[in-house]
Structures are given as C-alpha cells and as structure tokens.
Amino acid sequence: MDARDTQGDVVAPGHERAEAAHPARRMRATGIGTVAVLLWASLALFTTLTGRIPPFQLTAMAFTVGGIIGLPRAVRGGGALARGLPGGAWALGIGGLFGYHFFYFLALRNAPAVDAGLIAYLWPLLIVVFSALLPGERLRWWHTAGAVLGLGGTFLLVTGGQGVHLRGEYLLGYAAAAVCALVWSAYSVANRRYPQVPTDMVAFFCLATAALAAVCHLLFETTVRPDGWQWLAVLALGLGPVGGAFYVWDHGTKHGDIRLLGTFSYFAPLLSTALLVATGRADASWRVAAASVLIAGGAMLASAEALRSARRRR
Fold first, then answer.
1. Using the 8-state DSSP alphabet, how is residue 226 labeled?
2. Are 82 and 133 in contact (CB under 8 A)?
3. Which of 38, 158, 267, 269 is 20 to 30 Å apart from 249, CA to CA?
4. Which residues have C-beta within 8 Å of that of residue 36, sequence separation ≥ 6?
5. For the chain, what is the largest distance between any 2 Cα atoms, rounded to a whole number of angstroms?
C-alpha cells in the first residue's frame, strides 16, 4: 500500500465486515502479526547480551535501528503521506511505542521486577477483552478462556510458582505497570482505526520514539559506551524485537484477527524462557513444562473456531 491508497484517517464503517469477507487475507495478516511474537521471544536474550547499557539509552539505540531499516521505503512510498498524516495516527503510533516502554521502565524502577512484569503482561488478555469494542468483532467465551489460560502460564513462568505479594510501598510501580499494559493493549486495538495508514509509517514512529527515549536517557541516566559484542546485540534488537517486530505487529493488528493475536502473544514469554534455557542462561523446570501446556492449550482453544473455518474452506 502506498500514499495514493490512503484517503482517510479513520476506518470506514464497513471495513471490519470487508475484512471478514476475505478470511484467507485475514488469516494471512494474523500470521504476519504472529511473527512479532516470535521476535519478542528473543528480547530477553539480546537484552542480557547488551550488558549494563541503561534502558532508555538501549531503547533509543534499538529504535533508531528499527526506524532506519524502514526509512528508505517510508520516504519513497509515504513521504507525502507522513506530512499529511492525521494527528490521531501520530499520537497513537508514538504514544503506543514510547508510552509502553516509558511506563515499563518506570514500573521496574519502583516495584520488584517479577510483580511489575506480571502486571504489565496483562496486555494480551486486555487485547482480547478490548477487541469486543471493535465493529464486526465478537468476543466468544473460548477467546477469553484461551487468554486466561495463557495468563496462567505466564504467571507460572514469571513467578516461578511462588505467587505474588503486592506491597503498599510499590504502589507507584504497580500503577505504572498497569498503565503499561493499558497503553499497549489500547494501541494494538485502536490501531484498527487506521487500516489505510501504510505500515511503512512505523519507521517514523520508531525514530520519534528513539528521540524521546534519548531525551529521557539524558535526563535520568549516565551514558555507557557499548563494546563490540554489545553493538551487535543492539543491532539485533533493532532488527528484531525492538524494531522490526513493530512493522509486522502493525500489519497484523490492522488486518488480522486481533483476538488470536492477543492469545498467541502469551507464547512470547514461553519461547523467551525456552531460548534462555537453550543458551544456558536459565534452568529447565516443571514450571516451564506446565506453562507450555497452559499457553499452548489456551492458544488452541482460542483459535479452534478459526481453524475449523479454514478447514471448511478447503
């Protein structure tokens, strides 16, 4: 899609029904969006390889790479569109990308990482719930049940089966983590309002996010100069989980099945843990196996209807 295809900033009333009328295209877009989940699974591994680079500095560097990889296509195909892009699309794109990371880091600074991480990872469940607000979408019990099973699996992974003990002195951190979850889920669902805004525009959103993260870095952190291997890890983050992933997620949330994307997102922490185990940075345990069953079972339950429809069309 190029700039000439974009004539409006908000989805037409019949867009959701038009998408539903092309189930093969919808499932293909869902598959493209799921690639983001696979890329996010590498986030923890690549982040550990960056050493002691402060989070806002790392965010600025990775999003710069993420913006640069899409910039040539964005300038060539959407330069004129960027100048005429509605304010709502800019606010949503930049607010979603930067807002999520800002509140996530704020949560980690003001609450235990386990507690903050679990609260922040409510966003897949919220995506499934919020999808009911979209025209043409129906939230059925198996979508919600699948997302809840995924949340249960994530709870096992994040807490190690030890439970969560919320304490009053970490209230600011808990609140920031909750806002983090709300920001990303709202961004993902509201992105459906701009189906005609090309995914190429994500390059500009990434660069704006990098600039805002750089400001936060200068205000709150001390610069750490990366060494050779850390530069490669930063490059990998920008090409993958903190850059490239947002292009495919944009396409998936605009044109795919948002309910399935929300449920499938719970595979990210599971695959991340598996990757850490495979590289010797974490230990395998019964909790990983149990979480695998819960998350995979939730995904199968949530996608059962879509899979049955696909088989009927063959």
1. -
2. no
3. 158
4. 245, 246, 248, 249, 252
5. 58
Give per-residue pLDDT as tens, 59-115.
999 999 999 999 998 888 656 566 677 889 999 999 999 999 999 999 988 988 877
Q: At what angle do helices 286-313 and 23-40 cross, to 10 degrees?
A: 160
Residue with tokens 């989805």: 11
pLDDT (tens digit per residue) in 198-244: 999 999 999 999 999 999 999 999 999 999 899 999 999 999 999 99
∠ CA 61-187-110, nearest 5°, is 60
- Is residue 96 within 8 A of residue 127, CB to CB? The reply is no
* C-alpha distance from residue 201 to each of 51, 98, 100, 237, 285 (Å): 31, 15, 18, 19, 42
Token pair 């704006």 in the structure block, residue: 208
For residue 135, the one-letter residue type is: P
Structure tokens, 251: 């396409």
For residues 283 and 52, is the Cβ–Cβ distance under 8 A?
Answer: no
Which phi and psi (to 5°) does residue 10 adopt?
A: -125, 145
Residue appearing with tokens 């199968």: 300
How far is the C-alpha of 137 from the C-alpha of 156, rounded, in Å? 30
Whole-prediction pTM value? Answer: 0.85
Rg of the chain over all Cα atoms, to the nearest angstrom: 19
| Chain-centroid distance, C-alpha 301 | 21
